[in-house]
Amino acid sequence: MKIEKAQLLISKFEETVAFYQDVLQFSLLSKNEDSASFQIGESVLEFIKDKEENHYYYHFAFNIHQNLFKEAKQWLLDRVGLLQEDGMDEINFTDSKANSCYFEDPAGNIVEYIARRETSSSSLDTVFSSQNVLCISEMSVTTNTVAEHAREMKGKGMYVRERVDEAELNFVGEYKDGTFILLGPVGRRWLFSSKEAIASPVTIVTDQGIIRNVA
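^ thats the sequence. predicted structure below, dont judge the formating
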């Protein structure tokens, strides 16, 4: 599975657009008073202005070249404050063979840069830039109807593990692709954050179909 596009409803629209363009240095594909789209490697991330200021937030991750995690972390440290978990500002996922660090954007989203040692490509670059971001790697779908969403995803041919845990986070997608929809319940705490997951509107366009969630 590949995430081709994700559409999020956010508050602090202008601040967030400026952050992704000027701080994270992603290419702005289009912008008007109600929406803005960025090129995130092979994916597109679109922010929709929430005129009602509901302050929705999401967790999502970007895959980066697997040999540039140290450089990516320093690049981020020069620009943003990294979030911490148990006093650490990075994590090594031994099962998934990946390294990650996290930060929060102006809209309150919990953003992760992840280097997957087995499924992401390497780069000949010795310094990190936004060009070393490969794609949207993970996108959260938080809902009170986890089982129903899991059935929908399975019906579209997405890889859903045999046992869906309605109380925990479920990674929908195959390991070899390095791309996942994070399907989970309202109320669980996000790693590297004190925030609890909330139901937020999202549209995720994948090469296996479109997934939508409502608040």
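The mean pLDDT is 98.
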